[in-house]
């Protein structure tokens, strides 16, 4: 794939990095106590990894108000602890070698994302980055993608780009923005409960090169 695209966009959590399960379990235990809801391991996994698509829709199906959940969830997350328990996937190292412009489009909130980038030493991998908010929209909405493309200077003139991520929302955002999509399956089809389509479907970025 070397030279096939004029620019690359990437998701962060579940795509380039992941968090130790002990951290996830601890956060959901504390959130559950405050919401008076006991999250099972499966439910915590579904929400953390976005296995069923829209997390807000999933929360409503469980009778949990999404706004209340996210307020409590972000209040219970410790940026420095999360950064300490976040690790970089070995196959993500290719990003450092890309010669094309590279952008980051992530649902990870800025107060959590920044310490992770610093601790892992990957901030300079990206020429532009955006942490999605209600104002920017959320993938598969293409607007966050367009904003990063504009920051990279590739929003016009027919530049060919690709977006890589671990979820259906990443693929949807890519296609909605007119880009090719790479789906990297980190959790496996059995655990996800379905297959996610993409222009490329891989279990490791090493398969692309």
TrEMBL record:
Q: Which SUPFAM superfamilies match?
A: HAD-like (SSF56784)
Q: Which UniProt keywords apply?
A: Hydrolase
Q: Which residues cross the membrane?
A: none
Q: Cite a single GO MF annotation.
A: phosphoglycolate phosphatase activity
Pfam families the UniProt entry points to = Hydrolase (PF00702)
Q: Which InterPro entries match?
A: HAD-like_hydrolase_sf, HAD-like_sf, HAD_sf
Q: Which GO terms describe its biological process?
A: DNA repair
The question of whether Hydrolase is a record keyword is answered with yes
This protein's name: Haloacid dehalogenase domain protein hydrolase
């Amino acid at each position: 794939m070397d030279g096939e695209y004029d620019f690359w966009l990437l998701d962060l959590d579940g795509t380039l990095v992941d968090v130790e399960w002990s951290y996830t379990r601890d956060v959901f235990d504390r959130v559950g106590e405050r919401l008076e809801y006991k999250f099972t391991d499966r439910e915590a996994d579904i929400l953390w990894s976005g296995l069923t698509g829209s997390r807000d829709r999933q929360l409503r199906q469980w009778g949990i108000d999404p706004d209340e959940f996210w307020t409590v969830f972000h209040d219970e997350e410790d940026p420095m602890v999360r950064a300490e328990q976040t690790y970089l996937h070995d196959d993500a190292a290719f990003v450092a070698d890309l010669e094309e412009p590279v952008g980051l489009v992530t649902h990870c909130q800025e107060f959590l994302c920044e310490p992770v980038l610093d601790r892992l030493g990957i901030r300079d991998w990206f020429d532009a980055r955006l942490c999605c908010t209600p104002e920017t929209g959320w993938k598969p909405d293409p607007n966050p993608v367009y904003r990063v493309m504009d920051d990279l200077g590739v929003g016009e003139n027919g530049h060919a780009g690709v977006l890589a991520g671990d979820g259906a929302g990443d693929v949807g955002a890519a296609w909605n923005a007119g880009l090719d999509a790479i789906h990297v399956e980190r959790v496996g089809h059995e655990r996800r409960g379905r297959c996610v389509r993409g222009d490329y479907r891989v279990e490791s970025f090493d398969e692309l090169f």
